[in-house]
Amino acid sequence: MFEAVLLTVITAATPLLIAAIGELVVERSGVLNLGVEGMMIMGAVIGFAVANQTGSGTVGVVAAIVAGMAMSALFGFLVIVLVANQVATGLALTILGLGLSGMIGEAYIGVPGIRIPEFHSEILAEVPIFGALFFQDGALIDLSFIKGLSDIPFIGPVFFQQDAIVYLGFALVIGVAYTLFRTRVGLILRAVGDNHGSAHALGYSVLKIRFLAVLFGGGCAGLAGAYMSLAYTPQWVENMTAGRGWIALALVVFASWLPYRVVIGAYLFGAVSVLNLHAQAIGLGIPSQFLSSLPYIATIAVLVLISANRRLTLVNTPACLGKPFVPDR
User: Which of 186, 194, 209, 258 is the most buried (most CB within 10 A)?
Assistant: First the structure.
């Protein structure tokens, strides 16, 4: 029973983790993008549509990432180049994504989905040596050749039989954490978010750095959306992200803009979100409507608690978050 619960928590937390880590990079550069929900839903519908049209999970996932980046590029052009209001533009991006996804996805309602395992086998299984070691008959990553680790009760299914995007989520967290705090690129990015005037005076292109950060965040949001429609629930349902983009935004604040805390927050919120299913399965007499609202209640409660602690709020908050930058000509 516990194994089944943990597996569902992992799948529920993965899209939150990927979307939140992308938004963390965006906010570290000093840009506030409230359009994560819109980018996620566009990634979900485009990934699903392209996967079904081409029969390729690989192409679907790549298309979802491109869709998220295209949406973020529109946002970046408006707020970075044209210096539009970041809050209003982010909200407009979410509304645009929800409406556009509904129109595109109308033809795919009820259509069987293509699961992400095809995404693994099509590309990685063909790589010499790597494919022979890690793949068998186009299945998910198989580590059974290492002393049968994937066959160990509980440990095997939880740690060694997840799809590639779950592992990619953790790789993104490690990569972002290392880049932000151990590399010159990360130092520059944080400098732009903390004091864009000084970064510009030192010769760094604030607009370019912020635009690239926004594109990265959009790609992550698109990938998170693809995971929703190709792995979490392999089908298209209108508004299937169900506010997860907003939860991802709250996770960044919850994590105090630190990558490793995003993992903790994502799994906590993932556990809350699957509580509804398991509470109904064991017959608890709690209204399903209340359980369905728990992730959003938890989001509000966390934000209130964090806001009450002013010191915690200011420790890692990028000083220029949400502030436009117009370089001197």
Answer: 209
